[in-house]
Design brief:
Length: 232
Amino acid sequence: MSESTTATTDLTSQYTAQVTSDLEQNVKEQERISAEIAALEEHLTNLQHDHTVLVNMQRALGVASAPAESTATATSAVVPAPRKKSTSEAGTSRNGSKNASKTAARSASEKTRVKRGTAAQARPTGKTLNAGKPEGNASATKTAQPTLVELVRGHLTEQSEPRSAAEIATALGQAHPERGIKATVVRTTLEGLVARNQAQRSKQGTSVFYTAAETSEPTAAREAEARTDQAG
């Protein structure tokens, strides 16, 4: 009787130890998977942010019309071919098509004469052509103004600490109130500079800050030298 009780006790101890070990492994596995899920969620958030920035850059660069053109091309490619007429229908419509072709030829000739007369009336005169040309001084003034890319890049170069897109937009708006600079356009410009390695982006929490890249200084120097050579 004592031997049976001892065997039962030993078996219970073994099961208890096994269950305890399995429970600890289960808890550790849950913690590991939870950490992986958190890391994946953070990575997904960063990808979604980058996707939004890239879409804004694509729209600003005027590339958003490409998918529409491809869609139109695909639509035109799947247009079904016209249904072939049977022999009896072809024979019936043969005489009518001859008359229709003659009528269409006369109509085309009349339309050509009307178009020639309209084009002659709508032909611009010398005054109209000269009126559309800008004056030389206005053109030179517009060309002398720096672009937004140059303004943003120059502002970053002058700063010793990282700046956000809103801070840069506010500073440039105060310096150039006549240009109506917007924060969204500045952010898109900054992302373009980052893509060309002319600026650096860093994150502090949920905020994004930008600084001038080290490679941008030689580029600016080369541009200044090129402008000096052109001016000479």
